């Protein structure tokens, strides 16, 4: 009887041992990968070897402006800026950077809410050796709202799709061919943590950001063998005008702090939250907590924000 029990226990022992060993190896791999990404980083990946010019959309404020400033830190990299309804504002910011950092700049004033702008952009970028493209321009809701209650819904839909979706596809169309010809280049598509799961009362915005994430990851698989890096960037809250967060915290960093952290992940992650506290938040909300609970809590938070906004507007 004892021999029979031992014979029956032997397979269970080896199953348990293999399971423990597999978990230990997985944990070790995750720790090493995390150390490589969040501590060591990618070194000086951004350099003139990728191309002389970097193109940043939505570069006059917030995350876009910080990307422009970080990219200019690479010696020998010039900077082409476009996107603003005000050429004057673009010129002022470009002149400031040129004075502070001695970089060559170009500006293109366009409204990404329009669909007839890309021939102008193509003409402006003609002949430039572009090594980095940051598709950052984006627009969100002025306040959380139910779909059918969004003011001027038809134009709202058109504008958001043009700015958040069409711009990413069209700018990539203009820049990617020359990168592919040279077998080098980096495209950073700024999505949002809102694109990781549906966000009620910000539904259209969330859906457009999910498109950016899927588009980026699919394109990365298409072109990675040609030496192109295409990264989907999904930040949580960052202290910018768009989020209306004025006081930075550990989980709501300044644009400068966020972008500096995010750039160290380029080439190491095809999809990234870009900043270690955000990566923890992303892991918790996608791996540990059921999506139904995340959606419910997001809806609850946005309903409260909607109520507060409407009450303040009535008081005014």
What's the number of extended β-strand segments? 7
CATH architecture annotation name:
3-Layer(aba) Sandwich
Q: Biggest sheet, strands in spatial order?
A: 3-2-1-4-5-6-7
**Roughly what is the average pLDDT, rounded to an integer?**
89
What would you report as the Rg, rounded to the nearest angstrom? 23 Å
Query: Number of domains in the coordinates?
Result: 1
Question: DSSP helix count?
Answer: 9
CATH class category name: Alpha Beta
Q: Using the coordinates shown, work out and report the CATH topology.
A: Rossmann fold
Helix-strand sequence? HEHEHEHEHEHEHEHH
Distance between the termini: 85 Å
Shape: globular
Strand percent estimate: 5-15%
Can you give the helix content as a percent range? 40-55%
> Which blocks of ≥5 consecutive residues have pLDDT under 50?
none
Membrane topology: Multi-pass membrane protein
Main location: endoplasmic reticulum
Pfam families: adh_short
EC number: 1.1.1.330, 1.1.1.62
Question: Could you describe the 3D structure shown?
Answer:
By secondary structure, the chain is of the alpha/beta class. It has a single domain (43-314), classed as 3-Layer(aba) Sandwich (Rossmann fold), CATH 3.40.50. Helix content is 54%, strand content 11%. The protein has nine helices and seven strands. It has helices at 2-40, 62-72, 87-101, 118-125, 153-182, 203-223, 255-263, 276-288, 291-315, and strands spanning 53-57, 78-82, 105-108, 130-135, 185-190, 228-233, 271-272. The chain has a seven-stranded parallel sheet with strand order 3-2-1-4-5-6-7, sandwiched between helices. The chain is globular and about 85 Å long. The model has no long low-confidence stretch (mean pLDDT 89).
């Amino acid at each position: 009887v004892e021999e029979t029990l031992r014979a029956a226990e032997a397979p269970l022992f080896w199953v348990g041992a293999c399971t423990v060993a597999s978990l230990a190896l997985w944990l070790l791999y995750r720790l090493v990968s995390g150390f490589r990404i969040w501590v060591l980083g990618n070194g000086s990946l951004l350099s003139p070897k990728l191309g002389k010019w970097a193109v940043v959309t939505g570069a006059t404020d917030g995350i876009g402006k910080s990307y422009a400033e970080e990219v200019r830190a690479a010696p020998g990299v010039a900077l082409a800026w476009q996107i603003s309804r005000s050429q004057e504002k673009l010129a002022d910011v470009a002149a400031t950077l040129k004075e502070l950092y001695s970089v060559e700049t170009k500006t293109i004033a366009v409204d990404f809410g329009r669909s007839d702008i890309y021939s102008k952009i193509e003409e402006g970028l003609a002949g430039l050796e572009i090594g980095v493209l940051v598709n950052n321009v984006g627009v969100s809701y002025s306040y959380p709202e139910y779909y059918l209650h969004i003011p001027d819904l038809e134009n709202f839909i058109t504008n958001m799709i043009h700015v958040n979706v069409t711009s990413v596809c069209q700018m990539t169309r203009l820049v990617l061919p020359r990168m592919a010809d040279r077998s080098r280049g980096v495209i950073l598509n700024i999505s949002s943590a809102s694109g990781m799961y549906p966000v009620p009362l910000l539904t259209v915005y969330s859906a457009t950001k999910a498109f950016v994430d899927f588009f980026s990851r699919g394109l990365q698989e298409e072109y990675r063998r040609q030496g192109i890096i295409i990264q989907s960037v999904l930040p949580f809250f960052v202290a910018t005008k768009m989020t209306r967060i004025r006081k930075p915290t550990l989980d709501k960093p300044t644009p400068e702090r966020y972008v500096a952290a995010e750039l160290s992940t380029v080439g190491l992650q095809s999809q990234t939250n870009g900043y270690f506290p955000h990566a923890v938040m992303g892991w918790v909300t996608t791996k540990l907590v059921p999506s139904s609970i995340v959606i419910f809590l997001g809806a609850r938070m946005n309903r409260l924000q909607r109520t507060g906004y409407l009450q303040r507007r009535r008081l005014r």
